[in-house]
Design a protein that fits this description.
Length: 277
C-alpha cells in the first residue's frame, strides 16, 4: 500500500509517493512545481505550473490575468481576485496548485491521482491557514490524512543518515519563512523539542532587491511604495530572476524597457560581491 505526501510551498510545491521503503517524487524531481497561478480576468479560468512561471512577466504586463505568487503567505487573508465569472478566494487558488500536483501524479502512473495525502506546513503556521489549506485539499478532491511540520518532514527524509544522533537541528529557509526545529531521536521515535520561525526568507530578499534597484530605473522622485502594485510585482519578478542567476554567476543585469508607465531611466546591474544594484 502506498502513501502520499504534499509540500504546499511559498515558491514551489511538491508531491511524493511512499511505497514500502521507496519514495518517488512526481513531475519535477529537481524542479518542483512553481506555486504560481494565473487567473484569467475574463473567463474566470486558472492555470498553474511551470508555464505560468515562465510567462509571468507577460501575464503581469498584459493586465489580462491575476498572477498570484507566494499564496501561502496570504492563505488565511481576506484577499480576493475578481473576474467577470466570479470571485476567487485563497482556498480556490491553492486548490489549483494541488490539482496540478495530482495531475502530475497521473502522468507518472498513479491512475486516480492523489486521493489522500499528509501535508507539511511551516513551524509557525496559523491554525486559520491550516483550515484554508484543508479546504483547498477538499476542493482538489484530496483527503488530508495528517499535518506535519516541514522541518520534521525533512528529518524523516534523511533519518537513516542521522539515526545515530541524539539531537538534530533542522534549518528550513524557504520562500516565506525561516524555520528552526530541534529534534530528539530516541529509538524509532522522533520528538520535537523546540521550534521557532521568522517571516524572513526568499520573498524578503526579492523585495529588498527590488527596493535597491528601484532608484536606478524609476521615474524621478517616485518612491517604490508609490508605484502601482503591478509595477512593483513586475520588478520583484525581475529581481527574483536576477537572484537565481547570482547563485551560479558573479554578475547579472536587470533590464526594464518600461517601468512606471514610462521608459526606464537606466539598466541596473548587480554583483554577488557587493551590496549595490
Amino acid at each position: 500500500m502506498s502513501a502520499f505526501g504534499i509540500d504546499f510551498g511559498t515558491t514551489n510545491s511538491a508531491a511524493a509517493e511512499l511505497l514500502g521503503a521507496n519514495f518517488h517524487p512526481f513531475g519535477y524531481a529537481q524542479r518542483p512545481l512553481p506555486s504560481i497561478v494565473a487567473i484569467d480576468r475574463a473567463t474566470g479560468t486558472a492555470k498553474a505550473g511551470p508555464e505560468v512561471r515562465e510567462h509571468q512577466l507577460e501575464h503581469e504586463k498584459s493586465g489580462r490575468f491575476h498572477v498570484v505568487r507566494s499564496l501561502k503567505t496570504i492563505l488565511d487573508s481576506e484577499q480576493l481576485w475578481q473576474t467577470e465569472r466570479g470571485i476567487w478566494k485563497p482556498a480556490m487558488v491553492a486548490a489549483e496548485v494541488l490539482r496540478t500536483l495530482s495531475d502530475q501524479a497521473r502522468q507518472f502512473g498513479v491512475e486516480r491521482g492523489i486521493r489522500s495525502a499528509t501535508f507539511s506546513v511551516p513551524v509557525g503556521v496559523r491554525p486559520s491557514a491550516v483550515r484554508v489549506l484543508r479546504e483547498a485539499a477538499r476542493l482538489a478532491d484530496i483527503k488530508v490524512n495528517g499535518i506535519i511540520k516541514e522541518s520534521t518532514a525533512a528529518l524523516f527524509a534523511h533519518l537513516d543518515k542521522v539515526r545515530g544522533c541524539r539531537y538534530v537541528v533542522v534549518f528550513d529557509w524557504g520562500g516565506g519563512t525561516l524555520d528552526i526545529t530541534v529534534l530528539e531521536i530516541r529509538s524509532d521515535t522522533v520528538y520535537e523539542k523546540y521550534v521557532d520561525g521568522l517571516p524572513l526568507a526568499g520573498d524578503s530578499i526579492d523585495d529588498d532587491l527590488a527596493r535597491r534597484v528601484h532608484p536606478y530605473v524609476a521615474p524621478a522622485g517616485k518612491s517604490f511604495d508609490e508605484m502601482p502594485e503591478r509595477e512593483r510585482d513586475a520588478l520583484r519578478v525581475h529581481c527574483e530572476i536576477a537572484k537565481c542567476h547570482l547563485a551560479t554567476s558573479n554578475e547579472t543585469n536587470i533590464s526594464l524597457v518600461e517601468y512606471g508607465g514610462k521608459p526606464s531611466r537606466n539598466r541596473a546591474s548587480g554583483s554577488s560581491r557587493d551590496r549595490s544594484p
